[in-house]
Design a protein that fits this description.
This is LysR family transcriptional regulator. InterPro entries: LysR_HTH_N (IPR000847), LysR_subst-bd (IPR005119), WH-like_DNA-bd_sf (IPR036388), WH_DNA-bd_sf (IPR036390). One of its GO terms (molecular function) is DNA-binding transcription factor activity. One of its GO terms (cellular component) is protein-DNA complex. The protein is an alpha/beta fold. The protein has eleven helices and eleven strands. Strands 3, 4, 5, 6, 9, 10 and 11 form a seven-stranded mixed beta sheet that branches. A two-stranded antiparallel sheet has the order 1-2. Strands 7-8 form a two-stranded parallel ribbon.
Length: 301
């Protein structure tokens, strides 16, 4: 019988290419991963791995088994969701991830509704950038997450995750005055971007490159309130989506762009119908009208 936990390790190795990276993703030691994969080879009865320089590659048999692993894990998640649906009430932890502006604007009314309707749920929120969401969901650190992509920074679908659209927002060019009406007008300006590696940092790079220049990034800030304060102080220009412009200082000129930020709800494949996750999705969608009242309006799906 093939061990399911070892299948998960094989799948992470297939995604990441090194035993060290797979171990970090699932909070194992590299030696433990090696031992578990060796045991999996014995269970399978065929070689699953081969060395390729410093990396480990899957054999043809390993590729076949990794392909089945994705479906096996999804079916097990579906089974867990079906069992949860037989219970009379929702109990236990629900680990929720959200990017900062969603954690500030979208989540609070949804959490109030969940706590009222399902007091047995232990709601646990982690704020994180969308680039970290897939690993957190696949590794089990999160059950469900609010995430997003920008038009300038699209993301390929992840076969391990289910997503559904939530909100589309206009992206604004934020400047200290109204004399710069486009990204191209800001070629010589200093820029304010998110921390390197975040999606908001990549947005600034890609948007400026699409307009024919490399931005001169002067400041890094991840909180849109801080970004707006820096813009108001004449420290640079930036790009900010609708959820981030509430209470913008009067000194900041906001020019709507054609670019959009598209938010979605993500969970592991097979868990979408889990009662706790379904309740979370419903609460988030019902909070839409309240969120629209914040002054950060967007188009809800």
């Amino acid at each position: 019988m093939i061990d399911v936990h070892r299948l998960r390790l094989l799948l992470e190795l297939a995604r990441r290419g090194t035993i060290t990276a797979a171990a970090e993703a699932l909070a194992y030691t590299p030696s433990a991963v090696s031992q578990q994969l060796a045991a999996l080879e014995r269970e399978a009865g065929v070689p699953l791995l081969e060395r390729a320089g410093r990396r480990v590659a899957l054999t043809p048999a390993g590729v076949v088994l990794a392909g089945y692993a994705e479906s096996v894990l999804a079916v097990l998640e579906e089974a867990s969701a079906a069992l949860a649906a037989t219970r009379d009430s929702l109990t236990g932890p629900l680990r929720i991830g959200a990017f900062p502006s969603a954690a500030r604007v979208i989540l609070p009314p949804a959490l109030v509704a969940l706590g009222r309707d399902h007091p047995g749920l232990e709601l646990m929120v982690t704020e994180l950038d969308p680039v970290d969401v897939p690993d957190a969901l696949r590794g089990g650190a999160l059950d469900v997450a609010l995430t997003f992509v920008y038009d300038y920074v699209p993301a390929a679908p992840d076969p391990a995750l289910d997503t559904e659209p939530l909100l589309e927002e206009i992206v604004y060019l934020a400047t200290p005055d109204a004399t710069r009406a486009s990204i191209a007008d800001c070629r010589d300006a200093g820029w304010i971007a998110g921390s390197p590696g975040t999606l908001c940092h990549t947005l600034v790079l890609r948007a400026c490159e699409a307009n024919g220049f490399t931005p001169r990034i002067r400041h890094h800030a991840d909180d849109f309130g801080t970004v707006l304060a820096l813009v108001a102080a004449g420290q640079g220009v930036s790009l900010i989506p609708q959820l981030g412009i509430a209470d913008a200082p009067a000194e900041v000129a906001l020019t709507p762009l054609a670019a959009r930020r598209r938010s979605s709800i993500a969970c592991r494949r097979g868990t979408r119908d889990h009662p706790a996750i379904a309740a979370f999705v419903a609460a988030v969608r019902e909070s839409g009208p309240e969120t629209r009242g914040t002054g950060a309006r967007g188009s809800w799906y």
